[in-house]
């Protein structure tokens, strides 16, 4: 399988014209305790979190560059409660033999908290129940109210919430870019495979250094 860096990426010198800050949003997907922190749920399972930490390093730099350039920054976050757990998810987990598997990013135990990144006044914040940042939220309305037509997607995990959000953004009419080194999955093949599919269908790939340079 090809490495993520080997996939087609937009030429860095072409990016500035494609990512005007006034109409572009940096989308930060699910940088949260349960997904990325050593003392979160995935960390308690012994999952290797180093890919997530490396992606977050780059996300921090991208957030700083976006703020300096005047681009919108939008934070997505899974927030779950027993009374709002989707029945389809509970059924899926039960049929897999893991009926408690849906208990992640709880609102009342800190699992849904941001990890290493934090919104500031003027940023967009979205709470969602599942993977797609547009489904059941006002994300589309908030982007359109700001005149945004382009999204630069980052976050974790590549094959789940990043993938779902990028596809939904495309279906809502946005120009979609995915920052290949500012996303991460717990399994490298899922990361590269998902980026390969997204690039072939709904998004252009870029790298964090190229986006930062475009916004410099």
Report what the structure shows.
There is one protein chain. The chain has 216 residues and is α/β, with parallel strands linked by helices. 40% of the residues lie in helices and 18% in strands. The chain has a six-stranded parallel β-sheet. Helix 8 links the parallel strand 5 and strand 6. Helix 1 packs across helix 9 and helix 7 runs parallel beside helix 8. The chain is globular and about 50 Å long. The N and C termini lie far apart (34 Å).
Radius of gyration: 16 Å
CATH architecture call? 3-Layer(aba) Sandwich
- How many domain units? 1
- The fraction of residues assigned to DSSP E strands is 15-25%
The helix/strand class is: alpha/beta
Amount of helix:
25-40%
Distance between the termini: 34 Å
Q: Give the count of helical stretches.
A: 9
Poorly predicted ranges (pLDDT <50, ≥5 residues)? Answer: none
Might you state the CATH topology name? Answer: Rossmann fold
CATH superfamily, called what?
Answer: Isochorismatase-like
* Secondary structure tally: strands: 6
Order of helices and strands: HEHHHEHEHEHEHEH
State the name of the first-level CATH class. Answer: Alpha Beta
Q: What is the overall shape?
A: globular
How are the strands of the largest sheet arranged? Answer: 3-2-1-4-5-6
| Largest sheet geometry | 6 strands, parallel
Instruction: Let me know the average pLDDT.
Output: 94
